[in-house]
Design a protein that fits this description.
Largest sheet: 9 strands, mixed
GO molecular function: hydrolase activity
Number of domains: 1
Family: Belongs to the Nudix hydrolase family.
Helix content: 10-25%
Cofactor: Mg(2+)
Keywords: Hydrolase
Low-confidence stretches: none
Shape: globular
Organism: Thermaerobacter marianensis (strain ATCC 700841 / DSM 12885 / JCM 10246 / 7p75a)
CATH class: Alpha Beta
Number of helices: 2
Amino acid sequence: MAGPVPPAEVECITLHGQRRRYPAHQVRFRPAVYGVAVEGGRVLLGRSAFTGRLDIPGGAVEPWESLEQALRREFREETGVEPEPLELFHFTENFFAFFDHPFHSLRFYFLVRVPAGATFTPQRSEVTEIRWVDLAAAPEEAFAPGDREILFKAVERAGRGS
């Protein structure tokens, strides 16, 4: 009995929210990890240099890295601060295109702690600013699709203690 036949094309969401189809043979796996710091009900976010939206610090896991190693590296690169990973609290899977490269994305979200009173330094090539954000005061369109719900989940989870 033959296995499933791969599709000829895969639909991906672009950085700007459009849907585009790519040949299935071009799609690559991209595990990624993100760190959500919560303080007083606010979350630490960066403003993406690519989209202008508020973004969760994090990014791709290199083939030789563990999730925790990648989390520490990506968070430190984007914020200038070393995070303390607390717990994996969420996972998503989707298909997206980043600068016309299609990916099957596996995203791991961790609660993290940052040093009290830390000074943040954004990675200018990717992040224009880093700041604490009150989710209730930020409009939904300020976030990438789905991120706001993940952030509310992080705030709720952090409120229960980790």
